[in-house]
Amino acid sequence: MSSNVEEFGSGHVLADGNFDPRLAWDWSDYRRRRAEIAGRWRADGLRYFSLGYFLRNLFGQRVQKVSIDAGLTCPNVDGTVAFGGCNFCDNRSFSPSRRLPRQDIAEQVDSGIRLLKLRYRVDKFIAYFQPATNTYAEPADLRTMYEMALSHPRVSGLAVGTRPDCVPSEVMDVLAEFAGRTLLSVEYGMQTMHDHSLAWMNRGHDHAATVDAVQRSRNLPLEVCLHIMLSLPTENREQMLQTAEEVARLGVDAVKIHNLYVVKKTPLALMWEQGDIKLMDRDEYVETVVDFIERLPPDMVVERVSGDAPGDYFLAPTWCLDKPGILQAIDQEFTRRDSWQGKRFAGPQA
Description:
Helix content: 25-40%
Number of helices: 12
Structural class: alpha/beta
Number of domains: 2
Oligomer: single chain
CATH architecture of the largest domain: Alpha-Beta Barrel
Strand content: 15-25%
CATH superfamily of the largest domain: Aldolase class I
CATH topology of the largest domain: TIM Barrel
């Protein structure tokens, strides 16, 4: 053990309180450090517990996610539970890796890091298996692809995007293996708690699948993040806030909040072009996001608050292309209300 490491459990916490991810991962030390960071974001002037703030305080520097395409599909694409995929989905529109000829995983990590270093001063990265369903393969294949990403010397953790109906016990075993070695976040596409909306999306699973996946994941030493989609035309604001309360009840570690946006050549694009759906305007979305975050526990990391797509794919709404403006508007709405994440959190429930 190097001399600049303070002994906490396995001894992977550095003397400055930050983490060295190349040493054996100890979740008890991590949870202690995470709780300390969660306890001070308000004192540092934030309105919600953002991912950037959390990772900077955890690792002592900026950390970026590198998108990786493992070449997998989804069970609602290949006909296992449905055909055609989600009605809003063209993976190329939200994943940089799917807009380029697919390289092997090691090459993707290298090229992704090079691109990110041109934009940011950053030396630590999380390998993010992003497009499609990244647990939808044989366990041996999953081990190979996760190992290829984790073996890069600048990769400090793994994030695995998947569906809640695609984590059978043998896949959970693989995730547990890697969680014993590194920070691992499993990101489930919950989207909403309302089954009628999931059916409208053509998800091919119900909310009970999310509850089951989260409950089984909580038995493992890993992070759980839920993806939520607001502004669905099948829901009013009250129903969206019911989803916020359900996310809080499930007690996960993090949440990603996305607005519904339209990309070309999707079923949603046809609905929008025919005038069958109305998209939420920016002011209403900002108010809904703040309503949503107010109901989350203050120690839940908010990884993002909106989504968009590249111009080659994007159709609407145009306001979501202005990310800095949306972030500023959300902060201004919190300030106007004199509010913050957790202000309306009801507390743990049985």
